[in-house]
């Protein structure tokens, strides 16, 4: 199932009845009741102990935070990072923040195929969730930045996103807001000059490293037999049997490698993917495999946000990535398992902070 990532403010529970049909040959709606009865009839035969042992081996255990030896997570850094994440004054026109496209109260997505930034310019790829992203091998669909700290540096200067003209312009804004000085000093007490572009990115990175979402699957892995329903256990077994774990493995259940979109059958996309970064022919249409954590709540799917339905995405992955037949019962079982990957972040951690007031020298918004 490589290449399937989704983002929607309401999730797939709402999208399953949407009339949108993106692919010309979209599969018909599964026979929900019949397939569910089939799953329930088969589920009691599953050995929970054996499934748990395999899940532990394939996925491992979710940590409390995604650590970085070069950026120790501290409460002061997290508090500063949360404030910066919400602050639109880091954008040229003071109207775009990290939270504009990666909404913390909506699964960290905006529900659009591609997001809008400065002057309503639209990006070329779907904005993925930031939840659990710090666990990935790299950031962005093409893996062009190594980690969340490096990603934070690029967003403020991207002309389509936040459109700040330079690092110096960002620092000028931060230094002009009196309330940021004590926050940076608390977060970086050993620095002679705490307010730097590097420290801004490190603070945002520290905050994002706490945005992990323990799910029912994690409870099952830790030994709770009641954490997954019979249908979800059937889906876990089907997920293993179909071969989805060839790409979606590790603690993030994805995000750990790159894969061509269309391994078995060419997928209809003109996006060069990682090939645009490396220049290699072998990297054409290759993307970072997305995490499946919270996948049931973060539609639409794919790098271009073209797929609205999770059941359709499962069928497409079976066809283009795995080259296997898949029936209604398997689709519904796997979707049920994917729903068990939904988790929550501490509400206090992601609560909207009170932003420090602008100072007399804070630059005015610039809509140009």
Question: How does this model look, in words?
Answer:
The protein has helices spanning 12-15, 32-42, 48-59, 75-86, 98-101, 148-157, 167-176, 180-187, 197-208, 216-221, 230-242, 275-278, 310-322, 328-339, 347-350; strands spanning 258-260, 286-288. The protein is mainly α and 368 residues long. It has two domains: 12-62 and 213-339, Cytochrome Bc1 Complex, Chain D, domain 2; 75-211, Cytochrome c-like domain (Cytochrome Bc1 Complex, Chain D, domain 2), CATH 1.10.760.10. Strands 1-2 form a two-stranded antiparallel ribbon. The longest helix has 13 residues, at 230-242. The model is unreliable at 1-32 (pLDDT under 50).
Which CATH class of the largest domain? Mainly Alpha
Number of domains: 2
CATH architecture assignment name of the largest domain: Orthogonal Bundle
What fold name goes in the CATH topology slot of the largest domain? Cytochrome Bc1 Complex, Chain D, domain 2
Mean pLDDT: 88
Number of strands: 2
Number of helices: 15
Based on secondary structure, the structural category is: mainly alpha
Biggest β-sheet: count, sense, barrel? 2 strands, antiparallel
Helix content: 25-40%
Distance between the termini: 42 Å
The CATH superfamily name of the largest domain is: Cytochrome c-like domain
Strand order of the largest sheet: 1-2
Instruction: Report the portion of residues in β strands.
Output: under 5%
